[in-house]
Structure formats: C-alpha cells, structure tokens
Amino acid sequence: MPFSENRxxxxxxxxxxxxxGALYRICLxxxxxxxxxxxxxRDPLLLGHVYAGPYLAHQPDLAFVVExxxxxxxxxxxxxxxxxxxxxxxxxWWPPLREQYPMPSxxxxxxxxxxxxxxxxxxxxxTPEDITAxxxxxxxxxxxxxxxxxxxxxxxxxxxxxALREQGSPGVHLGVGARNTRAxxxxxxxxxxxxxxxxxxxTLGLPLQS
Length: 210
Fold this sequence. Notes:
By secondary structure, the chain is α+β, with helices and mostly antiparallel strands. It has one domain (about 10-205): Gcn5-related N-acetyltransferase (GNAT) (Aminopeptidase). Helices cover about 35% and strands about 20% of the residues. It has helices at about 20-30, 45-50, 55-60, 80-90, 95-100, 115-120, 130, 150-165, 180-190; strands at about 10-15, 65-70, 70-80, 135-145, 170-175, 195, 200-205. The protein has a 7-stranded mixed sheet with strand order 1-2-3-4-5-7-6, with helices on both faces. A hairpin with a 2-residue loop joins β2 and β3. The chain is globular, with a radius of gyration of 17 Å. It starts with 10 loop residues before the first strand and ends with a strand. One of its GO terms (molecular function) is acyltransferase activity, transferring groups other than amino-acyl groups. Keywords: Transferase. This is Putative GCN5-related N-acetyltransferase. Pfam families: Acetyltransf_1.
C-alpha cells in the first residue's frame, strides 16, 4: 500500500551490515524497471550482488534506508568516486563472485536474465570519462510500493546529497531504464538532467556544488 499522510513518517537512517538481506530483496522486487523481478531470475541474489551489495560493503557511509513497522522498505546507495569505487570492486568484490558465477558462453542474444547479470560480474560497465569528470559520484535508489508517494524518495536523495557535498563531490549521476518513465519523471523533478540517452537507458546528472 503506498505511503499515506495519515501514517507515521518512516525512519531514515544509515544502513547497517544486517540490512543486507533487505537491500537484496528490495533490489530484486524493483529490478524490472521498477516492477517486481522475482519471477525473472532463478538466483534471487544476483541483482543484489551487482547493484546493492558492493555499496553496503565498500561505501557504507553513503548507504541510507527508510524503515517502518514492516521493516526496511527503501534505500539509496552511492559511491563518492565512481572510478575509484570500480577499482576497489575489481580488487575486493568481483573476484569471489567470478569464481561462483562463470562467464556465460554462447550467443549473448540467447542468454537468460541470470546469464546477462552474470556477464556484468565479469565485465562491469564503465562510465565514460566525460561524465565522471563532471559528475564523479553515482547512486542507486529503490523503494517498495508502500514507501512510494510520500516523499521518502526525496528524503533519501537529500540525505545522500548532503553526505556527498560534505565529502566534496561536485556532482552525481545515475542510470535509469528508458521504460521506467515514473522514475525518469521523479529524477527530472529533483533537478537531474539527461547526459546520455539510448533506446534502452538514460544517464542523468545533477550538480551538487553551486
């Protein structure tokens, strides 16, 4: 049930190591362009391994959650320096996952959803230098339906922006699926502007320093 003004405002706090299961679950339940992706993946941990776990493990000071009586229902996670974060993951995060999940073989057009995510473990996408030069930080934000519509997304974003500004970041970027029109509208409303666009995704950026 979406958030109602009559309900208590969910608590916003820094994420803890024991929130890992909740972050992985939310990542999966919003993993189909904002919709529930549980039925798409045989391994329910794969999306979390790529899009949530690295941040909780290696940038915990930029991981925030909102929780209510049902538990954690949304998060924002980020990296201060995208390039440095990628180097850290190459050393410390991806190697054991690459042993656990082999690189898929055969024609990539025939890969299953699981295999497409496994390929990202072996070949993580790199953000172009012209984007990281101006917007070196990046983020991911996901909220379950019950947390949507009550300002929780904005609250999470503002918490992360404040932390990034305090650490001197000049700008932050994010990627979003082109089909996720609700999220695109939300980001534009918050002041993000489009940096790159293709038929499947957009990269958006937001300056953080005046």
